[in-house]
Structure prediction request, 903 residues.
Amino acid sequence: MRLTFTVNGRQQEADDVWEGESLLYVLRERMGLPGSKNACEQGECGSCTVRLDGVPVCACLVAAGQVQDREVVTVEGLADYARQRAEGGCGTGACGTSLDDAKRWQSKPADGRTGEAGAFPQQLSAIQRAFIDAGAVQCGFCTPGLLVAADELLERNASPSDEDIREALSGNLCRCTGYEKILDAVRLAAARTEEAV
Amino acid sequence: MTTTRPLLGSPMTRLEGREKVTGTARYAVDYPVDRVAYAWPVPAAVARGEITAVDATAALADPAVLAVLSYENAPRLHDTDDRTLAVLQSPHIAHRGQFAALAVATSLEAARGAAAAIRVAYAPEPHDVILTRDHPGLYKPDEVDEGMPTDREHGDFDTVYARAQVRLDAVYETPPLHNHPLEPHAATAMWDGDDLTVYDSNQGATAVQHVLAELFGLATGKIHVINEHVGGGFGSKGTARPHVVLAAMAARVVRRPVKLALPRNQLAAVTGHRSPTIQRIRIGADTEGHVQALAHEVTTQISALDGFVEPAAVVSRVMYAAPNSRTTHRVTRLDVPTPSWMRAPGECPGMFALESAMDELAIACGVDPIELRVRNEPTVEPDSGLPFSSRHLVECLREGTRRFGWHDRDPRIAGKHEGRLLIGSGVAASTYPVYVMASHAEAHAGPDGSYEVHVSASDIGTGARTVLTQIAADALGVPLDRVRVRVGSSDLPPASVAGASSGTASWGWPVHKACTELRQRLEALGHSVPEQGLTVAADIAEDLDDREDYARHAFGAQFAEVQVDTVTGETRVRRLLGVFAAGRILNPRTARSQFIGGMTMGLGMALLEGSTMDPAFGDYAERDLASYHVPACADVPEIDVHWIEEEDPQLNPMGSKGIGEIGIVGTAAAIANAVHHATGVRIRALPIHPAVLMPPLAGARQASPS
Prediction:
């Protein structure tokens, strides 16, 4: 089938897609957006969490055919998504991170210039910044899914309790951090957002 | 900007954090590659036997399928020491899940479909997969863990134990455990003539480069292994794994780049795991709890393809003064997946047994468990007689006592109720050796005042890239933003694996050495850098040979408070505290996360993690994250970590000990000891599942007069 859907605010098309292909495969191998990770491929670990029409889903469990005419946000578009949310939404459908921009975000060897002058100039979202500042990132493989899930939590609950956070993130496994710094990051993002408004 | 404030010891944020939070950090199968093909392995469906036929007709009927490889047509590999890497070389199957065939196709879906369509016929043979204490195949291996003696004997254990006033004799068991890093083992392989480039998920690019060179019969310079970002490993990526060999082989056959990411449910069979252990501990003591005789006898298994012998009794050669002691390892060869390293191999299961036994001894003697450990503190390393370069176990126990509020603890067993919950607390010690391995580094000064440091280190999430930049900038005496450290490629100066908690020491030492010499040479030149720049290479092999003989270990103390539900049998950890003495902490932010992560994995070992060998099929029953439970966010309580700053000049120029593994050592014992304090039930076989606790709890309820 020809698949038409919106990824990170821009309309995209892909041809010769088998309807049963996973959305994760479409994103990673057809769209060139490998930020969403494949760690279990059966919805247990949350590493591939993306937003589908605003709802956090495991992209590995969504069939390509199901995303026809729908909107997907991945970690690559999270900063833009958060910025537009702060500005009151994107009415035109023309804003967002273009696929070409997203593909150009190549990993560069860390250059000792800390997080400030990074690989691409875009402003990070509050949750992305908080993950760096709180030290919530280790190997980074669970990070994209956790960021999408945590951002969605803060969108519907600006000041979550610790129980709210644990509940919201309990579908996202991390084998490195022991979660403490991840909780710290969500608290930090919530506190900073509260200060800002 | 200039700074004189030392960067070592400061809580730098992770340098690659931005790439990781924007999804732009590239892992092994994330690189955009033209004309890429995808491979999907076929695991063997018998535990032992011969492949009699491979029928690929149906698989090859799909035009998207490029090749089906099996022992019949796969390229021949050269032999290496690691027989798990001789993939598709023989019809013989050594364990269920070993790779029998490989499908390669132009899409992942087609490869997966083809793998399912390949028909492999087997002539099965009887298999033997269950470890028992009296297994007829048990033998004494030549050594354990590359060079450690299998057995050690001091004094006269048998006589002194027989005469001891207090005797403890107990058997502890740990189940098979799986590393399960979040990133499955994966590789992208590309040939350019006889040059092979692999993006591979591993803990040591240099090591994988050398093994691939051997297997394919090429010079090491022809092999380029890139592991810029690695999604965790915990030991399971410490050596080359079969996936990278398969990917390279497939790429050669189909003459295209090939991506191969192992599906999660294949990892348990082919990427190593912690083997099960059965550990008998006998302690003879006086009534004050002074240990006079200690025996720690370990029974474990390896596979038909060899594998790692879990050196679980080694901790009893380090921890406590015991004038009469025996430590032994016996192993049997079974038709099982090949065991390997998992976080703190040896120490982790060994300390579950020893620290549970010390708790039992404390109760038997009526001595506080912390005081018991203090009474048995040795003045030199008990087995070697060497002085410790530094040992602050007692300080860790004392500091933990204060922070945890241990003095308020009522020592009575099963004395504290909250409704249907029983509350208890426990303590255990932690230990891990200090290893350093030979590595090289280069430091380069550019004419523009910038510095580049190169070392084939692997940042598997530890923060190596960040801490090496701190070490380099400190040694050069320049601000951090003038230094760029490159890691994650075998094209860089060769270095050791991210394993044995040795990365920071092994890589940081040559980085420090190269940068220090570069600084001196620049000073001699009056700080004018030649036009072509100035490069200094460093190698620490001689420095390692010149070290004085000391027993070098990190130590720690862990405290746990648990609640046990008397109706459901569920144990939940309420609090965990770890206090560690691990040399100089070079980056408190990344270090703290390492300790907590280790303790969390220890919590998983105590309560959740465990794999079951299926006697009929000969494989591990829990092969995915739905059945093998790693701790989730909601399982983990507040974890508190502190450390005692140690000044130890016998370590390395940074004064650091490794911290990646000690966090998991002792956690399970602290939790099991807390469960005993809460309930009076002693669990000697992990994990502490409700199913294990319910029968004794129900028995206690019936026996109680209420």
